[in-house]
UniProtKB/TrEMBL annotation:
It comes from the Bacteria. S-adenosyl-L-methionine binds at residues 164, 184, 235. It holds the Pfam family Radical_SAM. Binds 1 [4Fe-4S] cluster. The cluster is coordinated with 3 cysteines and an exchangeable S-adenosyl-L-methionine. This is Biotin synthase. GO terms for molecular function: 4 iron, 4 sulfur cluster binding; metal ion binding; transferase activity. GO terms for biological process: sulfur compound biosynthetic process; water-soluble vitamin biosynthetic process. NCBIfam families: rSAM_HydE. It comes from Breznakia blatticola. SUPFAM superfamilies: Radical SAM enzymes (SSF102114).
Length: 351
């Protein structure tokens, strides 16, 4: 009863006490989880219905100048076959995606110094011109505000940049000292100022993360009010310093997803590849807890294995852009369907 009252109050007031967040995050009780997840998916359905937006994810480069301890494409990993796509390859992926029905292209990559900014701006302009009805999302890491502005002016609409953890000491346990949480946070606010729809989020169960850290992240996202929220379990990668660390907890991830939906009713929340990787029905569980986006892989098939952020990353079947029918079949089973709309953020209409 107490649990239900907390969930109802979160739905109503969109905020809780820290101890209450922890209770919701950590519950393993099947009935409590069912109640939390249903509340979240009801809120989502009341706004977005039962259509799930799709985004074509084009992994444009696995070169990266950063050395994040958790990430498989970190600079120091010499086992990676590095690649980056040229303009023609990216435009071809967009064309294939468009024909499959995608109306959002997400260009994601490591912080690759060799894509000079000029070239990226040129690519964005070309996509904007060829596909005026599509949204362009970027996920290219930390840049200067001037650079972000140029991307925006070239026609990009959205930007994904997870903050990973808001706690400075924890951030420093996950990243070498040339990376700073203050920079990350500054980038996020600058992106918002420029007018991007902004996405942020965390890995759940990253090494050294405590439940209090997650509560701090909840508070940060409450301040930031991002239009998109990306959450997935931490998964180890064999060629990183964190290779022997435990993976994140699937249930905590899904509970957090539901909490985010209740706090941010209009947000675009993907059921992430990491969730689909940690268990076979992870994608479905995310949707049933309030996620409303999936991001099938639209990268050239020959490079997919090389964009390995963690072990066994799903990139086949329902995770593959060319197999939307498999995704549709899975969604049908749980009462959902693919939405081929562009899927922009819906601003709340205040009564
Ligand atoms: N496990 C899970 N997620 C990861 N990411 C990077 N490495 C891992 C990993 N080992 C996530 C980060 C990043 C996003 C693109 O992928 O949160 O922001």
């Amino acid at each position: 009863q107490k649990f239900k009252e907390i969930v109802d109050r979160l739905k109503e007031k969109r905020t809780l006490q820290d101890e209450e967040y922890k209770l919701l995050l950590q519950t393993k009780d099947a009935q409590e989880q069912a109640y939390l997840h249903k509340a979240a998916r009801d809120v989502c359905q009341s706004i977005y219905g039962n259509g799930i937006f799709i985004r074509g994810l084009i992994e444009i480069s696995n070169y990266c100048k950063n050395d994040c301890y958790y990430c498989g494409i970190r600079k120091s990993n010499h086992h990676v076959k590095r690649y980056h796509l040229n303009k023609e390859e990216i435009l071809l992926a967009c064309k294939q995606g468009y024909e499959l029905g995608f109306r959002t292209f997400v260009m994601q990559g490591g912080e690759d110094g060799s894509y000079d900014d000029h070239m990226m701006v040129d690519i964005i302009k070309s996509i904007r011109k060829s596909y005026p009805d599509c949204a362009i999302t970027l996920s290219l890491g930390e840049k200067s505000k001037e650079m972000y502005q140029q991307y925006y002016d070239a026609g990009a609409n959205r930007y994904l940049l997870r903050h990973e953890t808001i706690c400075e000491s924890h951030y420093n346990q996950l990243h070498p000292s040339n990376m700073q949480i203050q920079n990350r946070v500054q980038c996020l606010w600058e992106l918002k100022e420029i007018g991007f729809q902004v996405g942020s989020g965390i890995m759940v169960g990253s090494p050294y993360q405590s439940i209090d850290h997650i509560v701090e992240d909840i508070h940060f996202l409450e301040q930031l009010q991002p239009q998109m929220i990306g959450l997935g379990p931490y998964l180890p990668h064999k060629d990183t310093p964190f290779k022997d660390e435990a993976k994140g907890d699937e249930q905590v991830t899904i509970n957090l997803l539901a909490i985010m939906r209740l706090m941010h009713p209009q947000a675009l929340i993907p059921s992430t590849t990491a969730l689909a990787t940690i268990s076979d029905d992870g994608r479905e569980k995310g949707i049933l807890a309030g996620a409303n986006v999936v991001m099938p892989n639209l990268s050239p098939v020959k490079h997919r294995e090389s964009y390995s952020l963690y072990n066994d990353k799903a990139n086949m079947n329902a995770e593959a852009a060319e197999s939307l029918h498999l995704l549709e079949a899975r969604l049908q089973k749980i009462g959902y369907t693919i939405s081929y709309d562009r899927g922009d953020y819906k601003k709340e209409v205040k009564k």
